[in-house]
Specification:
The chain has 1 helix and 4 strands; from the N terminus they run ββββα. It is flat and about 45 Å long. It has one domain. 15% of the residues lie in helices and 41% in strands. It is α+β, with helices and mostly antiparallel strands.
Length: 80
């Protein structure tokens, strides 16, 4: 996991995963009512960084939790 920005020039086949922590706090509340962590995975391709996956980490009732890449691949499979 990384907390900064990727190098200007990516090395082929290199992957980086960034984890970000979020919170929702009601206006004026002393503490957050919801905490969650999302992840973004970057894949190096031809010297550029491309988003390979986004993982929703929320844990509330209406969230769509999990890998966006996996969800899209599952939909594509249903459509083929």
């Amino acid at each position: 996991m990384h907390d900064g920005t990727p190098a200007d020039r990516a090395t082929e086949r290199q992957r980086l995963t960034y984890r970000r922590h979020f919170e929702w706090r009601e206006p004026g509340a002393a503490e957050a009512s919801v905490l969650w962590t999302d992840e973004v995975t970057l894949q190096a391709d031809d010297g550029r960084w491309l988003i390979d996956d986004f993982v929703h980490g929320g844990n509330w009732q209406f969230t769509v939790k999990g890998s966006m890449k996996k969800m899209l691949l599952n939909v594509a499979e249903l459509c083929s």
